[in-house]
From TrEMBL:
This is GxxExxY protein. Gene3D superfamilies: 3.90.320.10. The lineage of its organism: Bacteria, Pseudomonadati, Bacteroidota, Bacteroidia, Marinilabiliales.
């Protein structure tokens, strides 16, 4: 399955979760529900996947966690905030850099229109 096909399935699941739950819940609620929907779509999903930092040639566990990793290809960073700040985008870009992956979706569920809550980041 191609990256765009996976991304399309993910966004469909995002809309489904947002339509069902609406805005205003904790990030963890959206995470568990989105993981469930992605699994129903037949996608491989890992929650709270550890992301080590490579420093001085050594992999170090610095406590970073990817909210959702889909098909070992796409990082999903979930938020439930009033508005996405530049630091949120920088965080996802750093996760992409550390992981060597190319595509991430920054998803803010605390919006009335989910279209405004989806930010696609490509490295």
């Amino acid at each position: 399955m191609e990256l765009n096909d996976i991304s399309y399935k993910i966004i469909g699941c995002v809309y489904k979760v947002h339509t069902e739950l609406g805005p205003g819940l904790l990030e963890s609620s959206y995470e568990v529900c989105l993981a469930h929907e992605l699994l129903k779509e037949g996608l491989k999903v890992e929650r709270q996947k550890s992301l080590p930092v490579v420093y001085d040639g050594i992999k170090l566990d610095a406590g970073y966690r990817i909210d959702l990793l889909v098909e070992n290809l796409i990082i999903l960073e979930l938020k439930s905030v009033d508005e996405i700040a530049p630091i949120h985008k920088a965080q996802l870009m750093t996760y992409l850099k550390l992981s060597g992956l190319k595509l991430g979706l920054l998803l803010n569920f605390n919006v009335l229109d989910m279209k405004k809550g989806i930010n696609r980041i490509v490295m």
